[in-house]
């Protein structure tokens, strides 16, 4: 506990020293359009996979606005992204021709152009279960919807009522969640596992996700992609904590993820029946990412069972900091940057798969 406290204190001090540095990316870089945009804006919700810096504004242990996070970013400086470089929302925004980077909604220097081309409301450590966001803490999914409501009013002020409505209807929305609910809550404490078996907890998460999606539709969203839960039992931290002496994949976590994913597909079909003018796509990454982890050389990697930061066994967020003894010398060999989050290279491979297999359904 003393180690964690010291690390947290160090992390907060470092974050204070670097306040503002992470926001040095120029608006010109951020608004650089590669092609004519497929959709006018990208809006993202969820956890650390999509968090581009919202947690920088929170008093939480789950921050990443300090090195070595961001060492391979465009500026080689940390921004609050839980990665060595760009994250999926950046890569997708670029592929859609919108802009190079998707900024955090809570960034202090957003321009009107930033707002009308999209932002991320995601927060590292959150989940569909409301208890999950209290652990670190993080921004609950319900609060992310409240932030989106405020965002809508800002867009109305820029584009007017009609323009804002058209923008919201034509934009692409991405949602990711569920991993923290399993790894940080259900399999790490009795708060939920004492009340729910694995199947009923998957249903609980599904109900929460469904409610979130339907409220987003009521607020004007029409093109929504929902990322399924990945093989969370295979990330390095869960191998260490739940994988036994051999550090194999935690099979029970993966089983619950698969239960949730199979039911998510059916739930989305039911929602579409009630909202027939809405496109809902399950971005199912489970099998592809599992294959990447099990057969890394097929995808240009060598190491998939540990992260690049420190020992790669448990370091993530405040434990992956400048005092970490080592950072791997060749990050391109690794699928995971820390013990929980992939590297930019791994994200790029994953985003290419998602874009090729799902986005023609989402943005057509």
From TrEMBL:
- Taxonomically, the superkingdom here is Eukaryota
Concerning Pfam families, the annotation shows: Lipase_GDSL
**InterPro entries assigned to the protein according to its UniProt record, in alphabetical order:** GDSL, GDSL_lipolytic_enzyme, SGNH_hydro_sf, SGNH_plant_lipase-like
Q: Which GO terms describe its molecular function?
A: hydrolase activity, acting on ester bonds
* Amino-acid biosynthesis keyword on record: no
Q: Which residues form the signal peptide?
A: 1-22
Q: Which UniProt keywords apply?
A: Signal
Q: Give the PANTHER family listed for this entry.
A: GDSL ESTERASE/LIPASE EXL3, OS02G0101400 PROTEIN
Family to which the UniProt record says this protein belongs:
Belongs to the 'GDSL' lipolytic enzyme family.
Mind telling me what this protein is named? GDSL esterase/lipase EXL3
The root-end lineage is: Eukaryota, Viridiplantae, Streptophyta, Embryophyta, Tracheophyta
């Amino acid at each position: 506990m003393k180690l964690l406290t010291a690390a947290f204190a160090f992390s907060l001090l470092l974050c204070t020293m670097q306040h503002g540095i992470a926001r040095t990316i120029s608006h010109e870089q951020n608004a650089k359009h590669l092609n004519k945009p497929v959709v006018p804006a990208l809006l993202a919700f969820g956890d650390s996979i999509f968090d581009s810096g919202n947690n920088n504004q929170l008093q939480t242990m789950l921050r990443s606005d300090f090195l070595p996070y961001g060492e391979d970013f465009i500026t080689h400086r940390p921004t609050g992204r839980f990665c060595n470089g760009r994250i999926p929302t950046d890569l997708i925004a670029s592929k859609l021709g919108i802009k190079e980077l998707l900024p955090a909604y809570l960034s202090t220097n957003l321009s009107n152009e930033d707002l009308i081309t999209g932002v991320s409301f995601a927060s590292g450590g959150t989940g569909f279960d409301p208890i999950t966001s209290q652990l670190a803490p993080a921004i609950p999914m319900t609060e992310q919807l409240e932030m989106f409501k405020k965002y809508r009013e800002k867009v109305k002020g820029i584009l007017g009522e009609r323009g804002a409505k058209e923008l919201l209807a034509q934009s692409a929305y991405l949602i990711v969640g569920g991993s923290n609910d399993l790894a940080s809550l259900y399999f790490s404490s009795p708060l939920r596992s004492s009340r729910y078996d694995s199947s009923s907890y998957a249903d609980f998460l599904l109900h929460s996700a469904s409610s979130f999606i339907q409220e987003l539709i009521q607020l004007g969203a029409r093109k929504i992609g929902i990322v399924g839960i990945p093989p969370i039992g295979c990330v390095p931290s869960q191998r260490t904590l739940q994988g036994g002496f051999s550090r194999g994949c935690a099979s029970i976590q993966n089983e619950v993820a698969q239960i949730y994913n199979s039911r998510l597909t059916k739930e989305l079909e039911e929602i579409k029946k009630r909202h027939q003018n809405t496109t809902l796509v399950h971005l199912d990454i489970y099998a592809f990412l599992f294959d990447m982890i099990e057969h890394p050389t097929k995808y240009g990697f060598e190491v998939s069972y540990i992260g690049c930061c420190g020992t790669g066994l448990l370091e993530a967020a405040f434990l992956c900091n400048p005092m970490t003894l080592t950072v791997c010398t060749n990050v391109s060999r690794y699928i995971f940057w820390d013990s929980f989050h992939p590297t930019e290279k791994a994200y790029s491979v994953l985003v290419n798969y998602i874009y090729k297999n799902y986005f023609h359904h989402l943005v057509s």
